[in-house]
Write a structure and sequence with these properties.
single chain, mainly beta, Cathepsin B, Chain A, Neuraminidase, Immunoglobulin-like, 8-stranded mixed β-sheet
């Protein structure tokens, strides 16, 4: 079974190409060597992706003789370069399998069919090689290569044919002009991808009888393999087919250590020290020879060497020389071959990449791309590893120090091609770059550009695009973390003017306050000033329509308090008075403030209501469906959880629905949560909120709207915890909204999940991909980030428990370690897999924030109106903390982060989101008692299913004047969105004018429908508030266990247990 390859930095492997090898004198020997063995750990890593070949059990006899020359290239020579480890792989092994896969009718020949020969020159340039000093020139030359590393390179990046890159050892060419000075161009790298290998194969223990038999069966199936000739190269290897030594046996006479053209045993004169790579292409069980004892033996392997045709023998008529017969005894007794042999499979048709990237490096070392690791010179791009959506990419950057010339116009720039095809179908392509072992403090260079080419589904046409904001200085993070890392995601962090905001906790909301069509930001931040005291900031930032904000944000008229933690507000955009302008509702631990927008984003404090709450514990919806927005607040132990019904314009009547509260008890990890949605699909907005009865832990409660100003509290089957975050959306388009949650404490309980709404009973748990570490401490959010019509589940936070006691760095530091890696702090993006019926990790991670003594900030909107959803996050960048010290974390580790989404066109994928169609088929029926039922035909959308579309409704007493229900709802609040049909109550008698518009999962809205009218009659007064309905506990679960026999029949009694 093949195991997944994983990247593991092996320092010795990185240094091998830079170890300067002393090349022994080569006079009087037939050919060069040049084999490097991988370090054990690196060898193990490479072999993890290889298949181990074992012959299937059979009684069929083996052929007595196999000579696999049909697809074998004509014998050639590596020349003076010590590259046998790469030459045999590229020239013999891969050319053979390529010709075999294409069923070539003739032997490949560099002279007549170079397009079928894999170029050793490509291998010298792209596969890792050792180096040797090139005479007294001051240059290096290639010397030594690992066949395994070369096979891996062919699998990962392919190889150019001889016709496009002929090989010549460069003898007689000036040192500075050798072919191995120049990197291949990006165009050549792209061409080489056509010839990517498929997989590697390993044959084990070939120096044992069983392993040798297995090898012969492999050869008998028309295969060949490369193998290492164990050091030393004995003198009879160099002199073959002539013996270098002989023995005299009585009765037999003189026997050479090569007899009958068979290498029988190694000479005692050791010869040359290096190991050597050769290719096994056949065997002959009947070829006779005598061993060192004069005994008659039979059987030899057939090898082809890389020393040309002036060495060796011809194995058959019409075949050139260059081969060797290696006696079985030399393999089994003298162990002249290493125990493992390797092969590589080729494709029968050219590989067709779907997605390519060309990355541009810029060198800043002034030393030809070379930096130092533990005193050794290292070409720094070779230190890079890439991963795509958390999976390692088989991408190699040449590490060979003999390359001195760039492949770009400027000498200090170089381009490398990345095969990103395994990202082509990923809705969230994400690249992570890591460069380890950077020991110098200064930048070694830059990554200055990434261009993407995407193949169109049919044909060979490519679309090109540049990934924006790729400009990274390659520099170690710190002495403590001597590595560089960077991420290239669909959402990228941008600075848009929040430098003076550094919230410990807070809230944010998006709405069009000025009526210009662009979303404006209301934000609340509790933060520590330079003098160590706390302040609250409550502002509105007006969108300038060009990807930023107008100067001078608006300070909201929220009354100041001597208790800053209690004064931090949850801010909501709500058209509270149905005048068409979005107002602000601000709720803190002191009161509820109605801040009205008097037009053009001018704000005045209109009313102060005696109901307290705070960030995470407030929501708005038209709970009674009378057209006027209402408020839900989880307040103090005195007030409990209340709905403030706006029973008439600007008149709020409290209806207590639970005694549970969300009063902040000054725990650093505490955070409440509240959201609105139609959980059971009955058309009535329900409330979901965390709340506590005593102490500090909260339960999550679904307050089911009964439609008569009462709510049934149903405890959801989750443990009581101090920290909750929830979000609500209809991810599956079934008409029932679903609950995304994150919860935790600093004692090891961390929960993530989705509760799927349904028409009957409690919401049910939805599967999450196994093995995902649950995150807590941040916020969760539903957002359609890639315009596919289905919201993704975003979960932000940390993996561990955070800090329970002060650390040496207080609340953490950003100076020593990267925040994501060290604190395990990030936002994961989960996508719904309808086939597996579970949420899967997209592999894209984003920067995250956590809250301190309250929730962090996380909200979504298409801020720049470019057609995709952007994110805003704010809070602590390090970790959760359950202690107070110096008024909490400060500006050094608290921040607001804006993540701009580039989904449209990112990685060459347009991902457009067009508005839904205009609703048609409008119909209204007056029911008396001030009630009217409205319905329409569902709209159509290019991506969002009809069941997931929601609607805004406008209603008024005059045509074009929608004073009863303005239909002006901010983005991201499903509780203010409607489905067809819907019945509004409390409407005045007389003619009602109305219209609707559709909104998709990405917030894109249709145009308004044609206005209709209906005549309402009668009236209805809301009931008097009563006591909360009793809370419904989660049902007991009974587990029945039965013992069954092998036939499935009950074999005994059963055990029942409750839980």
């Amino acid at each position: 079974m093949m195991r997944r390859k994983h990247n593991r930095l092996c320092l010795m492997m990185l240094l091998l190409p830079f170890l300067i090898i002393r090349v022994p004198a080569q006079s009087g020997v037939p050919g060069a060597t040049g084999l490097l063995e991988l370090p054990p750990a690196e060898k193990e890593r490479v072999l993890e992706s290889f298949e181990v070949w074992e012959a299937a059990p059979t009684r069929a006899p083996l052929p007595a003789r196999v000579v696999n020359t049909r697809y074998l290239p004509k014998v050639s020579s590596q020349g003076t370069l010590g590259i046998c480890g790469s030459f045999v792989v590229y020239y013999y092994l891969y050319s053979y399998y390529f010709a075999k896969a294409r069923n070539l009718a003739f032997r490949p020949d560099p002279e007549t069919s170079p397009e079928y020969i894999s170029s050793p020159a490509w291998g010298v340039l792209m596969a890792p090689h050792g180096v040797a000093a090139e005479g007294g020139t001051g240059f290096y030359m290639p010397w030594g290569a690992s066949p395994l590393a070369c096979i891996e390179s062919i699998i990962n990046i392919g190889a150019l044919p001889w016709s496009e890159m002929p090989y010549n050892d460069g003898a007689g060419v000036p040192a500075e002009d050798k072919f191995y000075r120049q990197l291949p161009t990006a165009a050549q790298m792209k061409a080489a991808l056509r010839y990517k290998g498929v997989r590697g194969t390993t044959l084990n223990a070939i120096d044992t009888p069983d392993g040798l038999q297995n090898l012969k069966r492999f050869l008998a199936q028309g295969n060949i393999a490369v193998v290492t000739w164990r050091s030393p190269l004995t003198t009879n290897m160099d002199s073959y087919p002539n013996p270098s030594e002989s023995v005299i046996i009585d009765g037999v006479g003189e026997i050479g250590n090569v007899n009958n053209n068979v290498y029988a045993w190694p000479s005692e004169a050791a010869g040359r020290a290096p190991s050597h790579a050769v290719t096994i292409i056949g065997y002959d069980d009947n070829i006779p020879y005598r061993n060192k004892n004069g005994e008659e033996c039979q059987g030899a392997l057939l090898l082809v060497n890389s020393w040309g045709t002036d060495w060796g023998v011809s194995p058959a008529a019409d075949i050139e020389a260059g081969f060797m017969w290696l006696g079985y005894e030399a393999v089994l007794t003298y162990k002249k071959l290493e125990g493992q042999a390797y092969a590589v499979a080729a494709r029968s048709e050219d590989y067709q990449p779907a997605l390519l990237g060309t990355v541009t490096f810029q060198d800043q070392t002034s030393n030809n791309w070379v930096t130092q690791i533990t005193g050794f010179p290292v070409r720094w791009p070779s230190l890079f590893s890439f991963s795509a959506n958390r999976h390692p990419l088989g991408i190699e950057f040449p590490s060979n120090a003999y390359i001195t010339k760039s492949n770009a116009a400027q000498p200090d720039y170089a381009e490398y091609l990345l095969d990103l095809s395994n990202m082509a179908g990923n809705p969230f392509p994400a690249l992570a770059l890591q460069c380890n072992a950077l020991t110098t403090p200064d930048p070694v260079g830059k990554i200055s550009d990434l261009k993407i080419e995407r193949r169109e589904p049919a044909g060979d046409n490519w679309t090109e695009s540049a990934v924006p904001d790729v400009d990274f200085a390659v520099q170690r993070f710190s002495d403590s973390y001597p590595a560089f890392s960077a991420g290239i995601n669909m959402l990228q962090e941008h600075a848009i003017g929040f430098e003076d905001l550094h919230p410990q906790a807070g809230s944010s909301a998006w709405g069009d306050a000025s009526g210009d069509g662009f979303p404006d930001l209301a934000i609340a931040s509790l933060q520590k000033k330079a003098n160590g005291t706390l302040e609250n900031i409550h502002r509105v930032y007006l969108n300038n329509g060009t990807g930023g904000f107008q100067a001078n944000p608006i300070a909201l008229p929220i009354p100041a308090s001597e208790y800053p933690r209690s004064a931090l507000c949850e801010l909501l955009w709500v058209d509270i008075d149905n005048d068409g302008d979005l107002d602000i509702v601000a709720v803190n631990g002191i009161a509820t403030y109605i801040v009205k927008n008097t037009g053009n984003a001018t704000f005045n404090l209109s009313a102060t209501l005696p109901y307290s709450g705070g960030p995470g514990a407030v929501a708005s919806a038209d709970f009674d469906l009378d057209g006027r927005p209402d408020l839900a607040i989880a307040g103090t132990s005195e007030t409990g959880t209340v709905i403030l019904f706006q029973t008439s314009p600007d008149v709020f009547t409290p209806y207590r629905i639970s005694m549970r509260d969300s009063e902040n008890v000054a725990m650093g990890i505490y955070a409440p949560a509240m959201a609105v949605g139609d959980i059971n699909g009955d058309g009535l907005p329900d409330l979901v909120a965390s709340g506590k009865e005593a102490g500090v832990t909260q339960n999550l409660i679904w307050y089911q709207n009964n439609g008569n100003y009462t709510f049934t509290p149903r405890q959801l089957p989750l443990p009581a915890l101090p920290h909750f975050s929830i979000a609500i959306a209809d991810f599956d388009g079934d008409g029932c909204d679903d609950i995304l949650y994150s919860a935790g404490n600093n004692s090891g309980q961390h929960l993530n999940g989705v509760l799927r709404g349904r028409n009957e009973g409690l919401p049910t748990s939805v599967g999450l991909q196994s093995g995902l570490p649950p995150l807590w401490g941040g916020r969760v959010l539903w957002a359609d980030l890639n315009n596919d019509g289905q919201p993704e589940a975003l979960i932000g936070g940390i993996e561990d428990d955070g800090y329970a006691t002060p650390s040496v760095y207080g609340y953490g530091t950003l100076d020593l370690y990267p925040r994501d890696q060290y604190y395990r702090h990030y936002t994961c993006v989960l996508t719904w897999d309808s086939g597996e019926q579970q949420f899967q990790d997209s592999g894209m991670t984003l920067h995250s924030t956590v809250g301190f003594s309250g929730p962090s900030i996380l909200s979504a909107v298409d801020f720049d109106k470019d057609g995709d959803i952007d994110l805003l996050s704010g809070g602590v960048l390090t970790t959760k903390a359950d202690f107070y010290m110096g008024q909490g974390p400060g500006a050094d580790i608290c921040r607001v982060i804006f993540l701009e989404n580039r989904a449209c066109g990112y990685f060459g994928d347009d991902r457009p989101n067009t508005p839904p169609s205009v609703p048609v088929g409008l119909h209204a029926t007056a029911n008396g008692n001030g009630k009217v039922s409205f319905s329409w035909t569902p709209s159509a959308d290019d991506s969002t299913p009809a069941g997931a579309l929601r609607y805004l409704l406008q209603a008024g007493t005059a045509s074009g004047q929608y004073n009863l229900c303005s239909g002006n709802a901010p983005a991201g609040l499903p509780g203010q969105l409607l489905k067809s049909p819907v019945t509004l109550r409390g409407l005045p008698a007389g003619k009602i004018y109305w219209r609707v518009r559709a909104i998709d999962a990405g917030g894109k809205m249709s145009a308004w429908s044609i206005e209709q009218s209906v005549t309402a009659s009668g009236s209805e007064a809301p009931p008097t508030p009563g006591d909360p309905l009793p809370e419904v506990a989660p049902p007991d679960v009974t587990i029945t266990v039965r013992s069954l026999d092998t036939n499935g029949i009950t074999a005994g009694g059963y055990v029942e247990g409750g839980g």
